[in-house]
């Protein structure tokens, strides 16, 4: 796919995800009668703007497709407006702050439903056949075994199973199976492994049986695939903090754009699963208790509830500005790494 088309698709994807995110904030702010100044898609100078005569809200489209915002009265406190966010009950403020991330997670689940519906077959956790010289077979796994847990972590569908093996199967682990109606724990089961971007992963060395696709199984698979993706994103963030994943495993706008272009070229299934991963990642990342993120504002709200008084607006502003600078610095570093990687 050429670079112009890749950029266009990337802008459309992120524009849609940002729109969904900000619409979540906007929707619940309107529901709780919070005074809204502006609903903007993008950052930087305004390209288009229209002010509602009924509500006074300025709806705008800005030049840089790298963000967006809903500007509400009283976000930083200090307003006497009855519709100010700071004047609303804490539970309403918490819902407004969390709504954007929750909308991203909901979108991820809906995309999973579409993805699973379009899949030609659904994979179970029942072993159907082994590859040649499969180490898991040599370790005691057998055809017909229904795998219900990997290293103590429950698995429900093939997606769960594959992820668990890739994460924990880098060394001999326990596999819990149902064999002839009885639950059995197999100890020291080994899998092949491979290394990518400096990280070692376990590799599944067997095939599984298929599951009949119907509305119930589609929803079941979409739910568990969504839950596992949330877990995968969360554990990846932890892995970066603990050092399992280095800088080479992170991607900025350039790397993500390339991945989106590759996925779009590969077909609708690859594209859908990547967009689901991005929107779930966006939702979880925004809930992290870090300044300038929604999670950081939720942390301020929690501190306010404990202290019985809000953090001073000027202090909150300094903390949020520092957090934004750190996030922009990280994005710059990762972007430079991506650009160097393409040279």
- Number of distinct beta strands: 10
What does the average pLDDT come to? 85
Into which percent range does the helicity of residues fall? 40-55%
Q: Which sequence of strands runs across the widest sheet?
A: 5-4-6-7
**How many helices?**
9
Task: Give the termini distance in whole angstroms.
Answer: 18 Å
- Largest beta-sheet characterization: 4 strands, antiparallel
Q: List SSEs in N-to-C order.
A: HEEHEHEEHEEEEEHHHHH
General shape: elongated
How much of the polypeptide forms β-strand, as a percent range? Answer: 15-25%
Structure explained in plain terms:
With 343 residues, this protein is α+β, with helices and mostly antiparallel strands. Helices cover 52% and strands 22% of the residues. The protein is built from 9 helices and 10 strands. The chain has helices at residues 3-31, 90-118, 135-138, 158-168, 215-242, 253-266, 268-286, 294-307, 313-342; strands at residues 36-51, 58-72, 122-130, 146-150, 153-154, 173-179, 182-189, 193-196, 199-202, 206-211. A 4-stranded antiparallel β-sheet has the order 5-4-6-7. A two-stranded antiparallel ribbon has the order 1-2. The longest helix has 30 residues, at 313-342. The chain starts with a helix and ends with a helix. The model has no long low-confidence stretch (mean pLDDT 85).
């Amino acid at each position: 796919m050429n670079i112009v088309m890749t950029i266009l698709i990337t802008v459309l994807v992120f524009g849609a995800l940002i729109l969904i995110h900000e619409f979540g904030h906007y929707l619940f702010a309107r529901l709780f009668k919070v005074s809204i100044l502006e609903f903007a898609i993008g950052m930087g100078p305004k390209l288009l703007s229209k002010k509602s005569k009924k509500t006074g809200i300025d709806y705008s489209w800005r030049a840089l497709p790298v963000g967006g915002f809903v500007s509400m009265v009283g976000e930083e406190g200090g307003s006497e407006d009855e519709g100010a966010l700071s004047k609303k009950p804490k539970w309403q403020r918490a819902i407004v702050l969390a709504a954007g991330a929750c909308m991203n997670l909901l979108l991820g689940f809906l995309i999973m439903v579409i993805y699973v519906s379009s899949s030609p077959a659904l994979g179970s956790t029942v072993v159907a056949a082994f590859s040649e010289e499969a180490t898991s077979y040599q370790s005691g796994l057998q055809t017909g075994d229904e795998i219900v847990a990997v290293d103590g972590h429950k698995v429900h569908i093939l997606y769960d199973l594959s992820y668990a093996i890739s994460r924990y199967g880098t060394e001999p682990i326990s596999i819990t199976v149902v064999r002839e109606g009885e639950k059995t724990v197999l100890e020291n089961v080994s899998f092949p492994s491979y290394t990518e971007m400096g990280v070692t992963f376990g590799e599944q060395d067997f095939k599984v049986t298929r599951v009949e696709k119907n509305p119930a199984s589609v929803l079941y698979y979409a739910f568990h695939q969504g839950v596992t993706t949330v877990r995968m994103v969360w554990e990846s963030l932890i892995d970066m903090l603990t050092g399992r994943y280095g800088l080479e495993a992170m991607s900025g706008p350039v790397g993500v754009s390339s991945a989106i272009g590759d996925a779009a070229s590969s077909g609708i299934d690859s594209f859908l699963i990547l967009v689901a991963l991005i929107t779930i990642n966006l939702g979880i990342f925004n809930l992290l208790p870090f300044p300038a993120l929604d999670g950081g504002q939720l942390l301020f709200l929690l501190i306010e509830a404990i202290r019985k008084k809000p953090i001073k607006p000027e202090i909150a502003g300094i903390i949020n500005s520092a957090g934004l600078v750190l996030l922009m610095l990280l994005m710059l570093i990762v972007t430079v790494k991506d650009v160097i990687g393409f040279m």
